[in-house]
Amino acid sequence: MKSTVLKLTVTAACLTGAAPAFANLVYQTAAQQTGTGLGAVQTVVTVQDNNVPGGSDNGVESGCSAYNSANPATPLQTCYNSLQGGDNIAGSAGTNTYLLSDIAGLTNAGQLGFVVNISEPGQGNTATLTNLYLALFDLNGNLLDTFSYAGPALDLTDTGGTGQSGTHRFVLDATQAALAAQDCNDLTQCAVGGGIQFGFGTTSGDFETVYVGAFLRNDEGGGGTGGEVPEPASLALLGAGAAALGALRRRNAKK
């Protein structure tokens, strides 16, 4: 399973009746972050399946979240892109969707990205990712687009368990970032959900989580240094500092 190439099959079933776009999420490593446990970050999906092949379950850990227009606080567990689902940990800390306007630092839907956190102390500290997608919804619950990881299956390492994450990051490439921005030019009118699936028998430890944030791509300076999009207040402070430094230099030049 670990050598299997990810199969990308778009489901024909969609809330709008039209097939969503199927696009790429790009994997990039980034800096480790502490304090990223459940409730501390904006978690989209939490999954757990401790049954290995031959057990009472099928050995595939999979789960999804979709926007519920009737009750946004209780997301649907509808899956797209052929994910099987069924292993969600429910509750406010486990499975959620978020308005884009509520994501810290997000000024453009193209900045959306996922962090996948692995907690597998009993499975050689890895889990094999076979499917991951980010989904955008309008506030009527219609699916606008899915953006999926399109590479080969990935063995993702447990980098410290619950509350220690950030290294496994998936962001939109430039083309798909532009498409997401077009889909959701008004951040108050879009919500984000998603889904994740792991290879047969590759999970047997604690739960795996996916959380959403605003991130920079490597070509924008996001590689290896955290890569979070600065919040507006931080940008204003940086601008004020730069202006003060420029004024000081001009004053010294006149002396």
**What count of helical segments does DSSP give?**
2
Main sheet overview: 11 strands, mixed
Care to count the β-strands? 13
State the secondary-structure class.
alpha+beta
Shape: globular
Average pLDDT, rounded to a whole number, is: 80
First CA to last CA: what distance?
A: 70 Å
Relative strand content: 25-35%
Contiguous runs where pLDDT drops below 50 for at least 5 residues: 1-22, 233-239
- Please write the string of helix (H) and strand (E) elements: EEEEEEEEEEEHEEH
Helix content: 10-25%
What Rg is obtained from the alpha carbons, in whole angstroms? Answer: 19 Å
> How many domains would you count in the coordinates?
1
Describe this structure in words.
This protein has one domain. It contains two helices and 13 strands, in the order βββββββββββαββα. The protein has helices spanning 174-183, 232-254; strands spanning 21-29, 33-34, 43-47, 62-65, 98-99, 112-117, 126-138, 143-149, 154-157, 164-165, 168-172, 190-198, 208-214. The longest helix is centred in the C-terminal third of the chain and has 23 residues, at 232-254. It starts with 20 loop residues before the first strand and ends with a helix.
